[in-house]
Protein 1
Amino acid sequence: MTASLSLFPPPVSSYLSPTTAIIHLHALAHNLSALRTFLAPRCEILAVVKADGYGHGSIVIAKTLAQLGITKFGVATIQEGVALREAGLTGSIIVLGATFSWQLPDLIHYQLTPVISDADTAHQFAKELSPDQTPYPVHIKVDTGMRRLGLSPDALTSLLDSPLFQGSLVLESLMTHLADADSVDPAFTHYQLDQFQSMVDQLRLKGIMIPSLHAANTAGIVAHPQSHLDMVRPGLLLYGYQPVLPFATALDLKPVLSLVTKLAQTKSVGAGEPLSYNGIFRTARPSQIGILPIGYAHGYHRRLSNQGKVLIGNTRVPIVGRICMDMTLIDITDVPNAKVGDEVVLLGTQGKESISATDIAQWQDSIPYEVLCSIGPRVNRKYEPLS
Ligand SMILES: Cc1ncc(COP(=O)(O)O)c(C=O)c1O
């Protein structure tokens, strides 16, 4: 027999993890279209694809959004921006998070757009630019109440008045971030938007014109139309969720991500037996227990121990005992036909049952953002095409 030599690695399917995040790109397109209809045609969209596209895989998500007409992308770090550039994304990539002076040469090399939040960084940045790279477009962030990154109103005025903005840098957008847009009480959001508007008015009085303003994340988009301004910055909404808002909205969204695994083993245990670490669950009846090859090292949070549910055989069954680093136990006593290799849905739909990231968030006392972003590199990503 001739040995077959190949330049390519063998097909990976035989050793891929049985745990897969299925990314429904048609749902992403649906959510974008719902957003555009809701906003249409007033605002530009800066799609937030940080944290590996909220766990969905930033490269495929950004490229799909680019195909759908998005030209601006938000990341948190230069590293995330470089990954997108190296993958061939040509649109504007805006680095929303903190930037340090030693990172500026890479930021310029990869033509990323910084969000300037302090005057020192603006000066250091201008020093890194060669004459053929100027004027370099930047966004500036002002702090209107979040008390995170951002310039104060006074610092903003003197920065924009400085010679830096007469040659080295050009202001593309002025932005702020809303701290309480998902709250029942709109007072703090109104206060922040008033602060933002009065900064803009003061700048106008000094003859400084701002080409574009943006403030709204998903909660701002959904709950505060007055925050839409020239551009919105949706993240969670694109992935099919809203923060847990105290009010219903008109937006029809579809979750983009499903998380599935396969049953690895089944076993019968008697009544009164402790399961998994520390025996925090004891069977109340003779039980059939299923073992799942997913644990907290995949991003399936340990706080789901004794709290979470999964779907198997079109039935919702409980997680029993402590979630381990690589494994989770479920009670399949009520699914008598369950067998090794059966599909188990951790997030998504099976038959008439479904589990959302919001459900999981409630079980683990968190938010859908954390549920999605936590799904780590141990989990395969499988992309279902746009159509
Ligand atoms: C500055 C900024 N804008 C927009 C977003 C997107 O927020 P959301 O996912 O709520 O739409 C984020 C995410 O945290 C952010 O940090």
Note: The radius of gyration is 24 Å.
Protein 2
Amino acid sequence: MGTIQIENVSFRYDQMVDNLFDSLNLKIDESWKLGLIGRNGRGKTTLMKLLLGQLDYQGQVVSNLNFYYYPQAVVDKNVPTIEVVKNLTHLEEYDLWKIEIELDKLKVDSGVLQQEFSTLSPGERTKVLLAILFIDESGFQLIDEPTNHLDIEGRKIVSDYLKSKKGFIVISHDKNFLNPVIDHVISINRADVDVYKGNFDTWQDNKNRQDNSEQNEKEQLKKDIHRLHETAVKRENWSNSAEAQKNKNRYGESVNLDKGFISHKSAKMMKKAKTAEKRVDSAINEKQSLLKNIEIEEPITLNYEELSHPDIFVQVDNLSLRHETITTPVVNFKVKKNQVLAVIGQNGIGKTTIFKQILGVPQPFEQIGDIKVANNLKISYLRQDNELTGEIKALAVDKKIEPEMVYSNLRKLGFERYLFNQPVENMSQGQRRKVALALSLSEKANLYFWDEPLNYLDVITRQQIISAIKKQHPTMLLIDHDQDLIDEVSTQKVKLHY
Ligand SMILES: Nc1ncnc2c1ncn2[C@@H]1O[C@H](COP(=O)(O)OP(=O)(O)OP(=O)(O)O)[C@@H](O)[C@H]1O
Ligand SMILES: [Mg+2]
């Protein structure tokens, strides 16, 4: 079996203070199914770009494999999907059956090949691009977050599909998706990068054990150093008083006695204490560098303003939206104070369209049924896409939010300070999502519309969001395909289906 060897690779983007990767060494077998995990901005996407040879780095990557990256850039989306396939694969007409086979495994009707690419649902697009990626079975696939925008069923299909393949790296923050698929983990930690044999759960168990034992060791060391300090102080006091005693008799009168042996002993004891302290100091330093891998989950807070009334914030009666051939399923629901309503349903069924209609965003849809929204509500809308551009400060001012508040929330979400002045479009996907999230957290609101908040976000941030909602019980309408989030925070669900 061939290998991919990453040898002494160092890299940083121009504006960075420190290296993103510093003398990185990894050895990967070409048959492994790897999950690449790590917090937002740690360099997962960058690592893939390094393997693809798209960035200038120090060190070397030794491999004779062909690497393929998802998501591919589709330059022209307004053409039949088959043209997109041809452009990206250079397949000849007589070889196009290969794509049909892959599409079949992904449970996509090959009829989509004749359909304009721009009209495919997000789930269909993902599957077509993945099918293209696996045309060359001998290649090594680099799959960057395929689950964003996929509904629960889509995630299951893609997960089964990947399980049947081998030799790839997939980035995902969704443990339920990763667990059945992968047999190895590459984890980009705070202080280092490691490769682990197992799936996400076994990696997590191992990490928790490691963190705990390091934490315990640190506690033990703290106790040791405290004890040593105390002993050292005692010894010092003793030797000082011995020194003072040297020239006095037992009545405290000054006399000229030679007590050289006391002086000698006290000096020896001081020296011993100092050596012991030094040893503990260096042990502590060593441990501290290990402890840098412990991820910290800081609590976050929504700037939620609870209202004593009205009781019903949003009421939707027999609502359906129509445009050309599309008609969304009829829905009915009420959102009361402190309720989290989860709107669920498959990709493309109209969840976001319903959100926008309630919010009064202009859309080319004819409305059937009624929408009532209580008056004078402050609403915070977290959109589905990473559409923000420009600097954080300007984005905050635009929404009449104190930039400092946004910065503070971003710090809690694990943002480094130097990023505050960077344009959002230069950031990693998760960092971009965090900017949108921090704006929504900072904005004073009585009601939240959160459309797929978890997309692109790392595991710790997901947990921060879940904890905040559970603690504050804000009034919220929520769309997400993450089962854990829905189960943990929703007080009621409405399912869209025909
Ligand atoms: N083109 C760029 N110019 C400058 N900095 C960049 C650029 N692309 C990425 N970065 C920075 O490099 C770091 C790593 O980015 P990368 O996209 O590799 O992270 P990631 O682990 O994939 O994160 P995510 O989970 O959010 O996708 C981030 O701090 C990001 O802001
Ligand atoms: Mg990324």
Note: The chain has three domains: 3-203, 207-291, 337-356+375-495.
Protein 3
Amino acid sequence: MPERITLYTAKLCPFAHRVEIALKESGLQYDRCEVDFFNKPDWYIQKVNPAGKVPAIAYGGPEVSTGLEYPSPESTKLFESLILVEFINDLISPPESAQDTAILPKDPVLRAKARFFIEAVCSKLVSAFFNVHIRGQHPSSILSAVETLQELLPKDGGFVLGEDRWSMADVAPLTVLARAEVGMVNDLGAYDEGEGRKAWDRLMSDEKFERFRKWFADAKAKKSFQETFDAEFVLDNFKSMYPAMRAKRLAEKVGA
Ligand SMILES: N[C@@H](CCC(=O)N[C@@H](CS)C(=O)NCC(=O)O)C(=O)O
């Protein structure tokens, strides 16, 4: 009997989304608990993640009758999206197994390549996404990050690790870029009005980004992504968050 898995997640969160895709790819059974990370409930901090962040996984322990909000005290609580993705991969393909998965292959060189790509995602794309959307940096920062990542894609097509070798290296940027698309297409972010839409249009039309566009379309077509991304939910939330952030930034600029 496999151990119980409860994923504490949020539809808005690109990090939690990575773990949900990995769980879908794994075929493992899991319970899903949506957490409002803007208004963290006490039970979440007390019983799941003292840092208050999503994603988290409660692993193992007996079922408890009080519901998902109260994980078994005997379950192990695990955190950090990329660590959780590798944990899920270890569950379906333990170290002694020779089996590749749709999360990470067994070949050490390919694993190193995947982790190298993810390092660039974390240092370039994730920071650009938050700097642009929350802090109002010019959206061209996202295009610069995409350019760096594009350089690391195989030139003749396919996913990060080549051909149809879909892996966590593709998932790591995809969940961020899917949210950047919703934000920028609708010009929702703390940046100056019109700049998000303009930058996204450039990303989707400039010849320079052709390789990226092919990868992005292939990645968005994956079933595990489509089953786990609620674009409408993200849009509704962005509509209620970002106009106020833009107004605040402009007011601070005027007052400075
Ligand atoms: N490095 C973490 C980042 C997780 C994270 O920042 N999650 C956000 C939601 S997207 C959160 O829970 N924020 C609440 C907080 O920071 O208090 C990961 O990859 O899991």
Note: The pocket of glutathione is lined by residues 13, 15, 37, 52-55, 80-81 (CB under 6 Å).
Protein 4
Amino acid sequence: MQKFDVIVVGGGMVGASVALKLAQGGLKVALVERQTPKVYDAAQPLDLRVSAINQRSEAWLTTLGAWSLLQQWRLCPYRRLQAFEGERPGLTFTADELRLSHLGHIIENTLIQQALWQQFPQELTLFSPATVTGFTQHPDDAQLSTTEFGNLSAELVIAADGGQSQLRQLSGIGSTGWMYQQACLVLEVDTELPQQDITWQQFHPTGPRAMLPLPGHKASLVWYDAHQKVQQLAALSLAELTVQVQTAFPAKLGAVQVTRCAWFGLARSHANTYAKGRLVLVGDAAHSINPLAGQGVNLGFADASLLCELLLGADTGQLASEALLARYERERRRANGLMMSAMDGFYQLFSNELPPLKLARQLGLTLAERAGPLKRLVSRYAVL
Ligand SMILES: Cc1cc2nc3c(=O)[nH]c(=O)nc-3n(C[C@H](O)[C@H](O)[C@H](O)COP(=O)(O)OP(=O)(O)OC[C@H]3O[C@@H](n4cnc5c(N)ncnc54)[C@H](O)[C@@H]3O)c2cc1C
């Protein structure tokens, strides 16, 4: 049986960052991942899945040494963020107002994962591709069995294995949540307009439509709508889809050509507890949030950063200390829950055509645009 201080299960964006930080901090770490990512190649196609990375996540990726790689590879900064209804101007946050160089960056998920994996030191033991077949807890350790690598043991196991977390299920940790009525279609498009420094979201009774800029004449569009409508759209040819997009999206998008698309169901889910014995959950394994405001991985990185800080400050033999894991859960559950509820509030407010709600949101967007200090507060919360 190979023994470690910590085993991280799941080497996606969040898990890879946890494993890297703990290994850099001197712990004996193993990372167990189902699917080994390819090594970055400049010629690799764009990943359809992109994330809006806020300044806090940028700082986290910088401390890990991954940010400088992403800067050399591909990313797209944005300096303005706009929310509007119809063709009205709506509410705009700018980096200038906050005295920042930028509000965030749009980056492909695969690149973030590849940049983190590229930083792995030799001391970090990789078990990938691996299939987990069992997980048990004992007074002195937790044990993981895998098909390819046999049994592994550690003081603490960190589950970063995504929304369908196998470790969460094997440990009998329940979660509370639901599927939303809406789904979303993610579209990669070629744009007539050159690279933009704005990301915007247009609210619509059937769901928002968003534009996330990518490097060069490229953008990622997200079209939220009823499940059935999204599936119908996804079944169209790229040429037909291009026509639909040009009709449904606001004029400011300019001419586009759809090059690829995929659709996703939207779920909200929050684990009933973040820690059980020698197991602790991070990222989507602990919480899945409506991607409406692009906060999922940013919350995951905030989990990762706090958990690593606590673990690297722990005394020997105290990695699974009840007090440490309770503190992690207390701080992160509150922050994650708040963001999830805020997203649901937005979802309800903006997917509703009841006249009082429609008036309230139009007034809200106008007032928020005019109320300087309030606007600055909200935008700091959203981007930092
Ligand atoms: C349409 C859409 C748009 C989004 N946009 C944004 C955005 O703009 N900004 C943002 O912050 N978030 C966004 N999100 C959310 C974001 O993608 C997730 O929050 C993020 O991917 C979670 O990262 P993670 O590492 O926790 O989990 P995952 O990305 O799910 O990674 C889990 C990893 O674990 C591995 N794994 C799974 N099971 C096992 C197992 N049993 N054994 C070993 N390995 C396993 C997987 O192979 C994977 O590598 C969006 C989500 C969706 C659906």
Note: The chain has eleven helices and 19 strands.
